[in-house]
Amino acid sequence: MDRLAQLIEAALFSSDSPLSLKDLAALDRDATEAETLTAVQQLGEEYDRSGHGVELVEVAAGYQILTRREFADTIAQANLVTRPRRLSVAALETLAIIAYRQPVGRAEVEEIRGVSVDGVLRSLQERGLIEVVGRDEGIGRPLLYGTTDTFLQLLGLTSTDQLPKLEELSVALRYPEPIPETAE
Amino acid sequence: MGVAFLVDSERPFVVELDSFSGPLDLLLHLIREQEIDIADIPIARVADQFLATIEALGLNEAANYLDMAAWLLRIKVQLLLPRPFDEEDWEDPRAELVRRLLEYEQIREVTRWLEAQADLRSGQFPRGWLPPEPEREAPPVVLDIAEIFAAVDRILESIPQPVLHRVVPRPLDVEGATRRILEFLTTVPRFDLAELLGPEPTAADVLSALMALLELARVGRVQLAQAEPFGSLGVAGG
């Protein structure tokens, strides 16, 4: 590994949150963005090639060193770490609607889910998974919500473009054509 | 876990979930469970099953479920009405329901994807990952009505009253004060500044007397003594 890759490893190790390419570029003023990216990739390949227990992962906010998935259960069972709590179905449904329809108001989410979502919206906002991104121009100027980087990080995505495309889903709005049965 | 019960002797089915995330979820479950063609829902049967299920699950007090039940019954009634002669003009009253069911099912599919993705991701830990601190609610605010009135009073007091002044130049009369002090000293050997000034002296009188005293003290005609800061000022002939 060259010196820049070593510097990047040190920076990622010492930081408690993901670092972007821009953050990492500050390590070496002379390096171009392409050189920094190459060094990041070199570090990631080094982890993969020599069989490390951690890997370099690209997340929404940048890069992060994470433990490998295969060790999750063992280190959790040894009480060395706590797996984060799973979200409720109601929370996930609400997140799914917001992720696809953002910016979206409360009324539209309720229309799709068929239930009131006041409490769910509040707790998703408290957990930093959604945020207010603006106000509708309509009556009462209702708040519009969007998903955050924390949401993407929770899913291990770098952008909402990585969500499944609606036309790729097995159920689409194809009424009145017959609908194939979904595999349960 | 799981609630198993029979609805409709014609075709038994089992509800395996403890709870549904909403009326659309329950309705979709009924339809998929019985492999009903979503484009041709037998509304009468499904509406009855829906009502029976929400009663059995104790959901019949939730407004969202009642709302859906009412909608299903309305569609059931609309289907009983005679269709117009021209079939082209006839709009299936189930169309909106089907649209919403499909839309919801799509969201459910995305939800399952999100869940799987979040599960995958939760198996990877960053360095020093700690569970987030539970957020504590802010303590309740204690407020006394007397405190509010006191605050209002303080604010009102701090608003300066606009007052118009006529400024009259009044020169200090140090010579006059000096004469008065010397005369006073001929009657009493020592006195207090307050005695010299008398009741309710004007600012100009006080300043004149003070400057006269300081000047007399400087030239050694009087001696001044003050026991403590802001205490009375004793004057004695020098």
Briefly, what is this?
The complex is a heterodimer of chains A (184) and B (238). Chain A has 184 residues and is of the alpha+beta class.
**CATH-derived architecture of the largest domain in chain A:** Orthogonal Bundle
For the report, how would you describe the main beta sheet of chain B? 3 strands, antiparallel
Q: Give the assembly state of these chains.
A: heterodimer
Helix-strand sequence of chain A? HHHEEHHEHHEEH
What is the average of the pLDDT values of chain B?
80
Average pLDDT level of chain A: 85
Q: What is the percentage of strand-forming residues of chain B?
A: 5-15%
Q: Helical residue percent of chain B?
A: 40-55%
Gross morphology of chain A: globular
Q: Overall 3D geometry of chain B? A: rod-shaped
Strand order, sheet with most strands of chain B: 1-3-2
- The side-by-side strand order for the widest beta sheet of chain A comes to 3-5-4
In whole angstroms, how far apart are the ends of chain B?
108 Å
Number of helices of chain B: 8
* DSSP helical segment count of chain A: 8
Q: Would you identify the regions of chain A where 5 or more consecutive residues have pLDDT less than 50?
A: 172-180
- Overall strand count of chain A: 5
The helix/strand class of chain A is alpha+beta
CATH superfamily of the largest domain in chain A: Winged helix-like DNA-binding domain superfamily/Winged helix DNA-binding domain
Number of domain modules of chain A: 2
Features:
heterodimer; A: 184 residues; alpha+beta; Arc Repressor Mutant, subunit A; three-stranded antiparallel β-sheet; two-stranded antiparallel sheet; 8 helices; globular; B: 238 residues; mainly alpha; disordered N terminus
Describe the structure.
Chain A is an alpha+beta fold and 184 residues long. Chain A folds into two domains: 3-77, Arc Repressor Mutant, subunit A (Orthogonal Bundle); 89-168, Winged helix-like DNA-binding domain superfamily/Winged helix DNA-binding domain (Arc Repressor Mutant, subunit A). Chain A has eight helices and five strands, in the order αααββααβααββα. Chain A has helices at residues 3-14, 21-25, 33-49, 72-77, 89-101, 106-113, 118-126, 149-155; strands at 54-59, 62-67, 104-105, 130-135, 143-147. Chain A is globular and about 60 Å long. Mean pLDDT of chain A is 85; it is low at 172-180. Chain B is mostly helical and 238 residues long. Among the domains of chain B are: 23-121, no CATH class; 174-237, Arc Repressor Mutant, subunit A, CATH 1.10.10. Helix content of chain B is 50%, strand content 5%. Chain B is built from eight helices and three strands. Chain B has helices at 23-33, 43-56, 63-80, 95-121, 145-158, 174-187, 193-197, 203-218; strands spanning 190-192, 222-226, 233-237. A three-stranded antiparallel sheet of chain B has the order 1-3-2. Chain B starts with 22 loop residues before the first helix and ends with a strand. Classes of the chains: A alpha+beta (184), B mainly alpha (238).
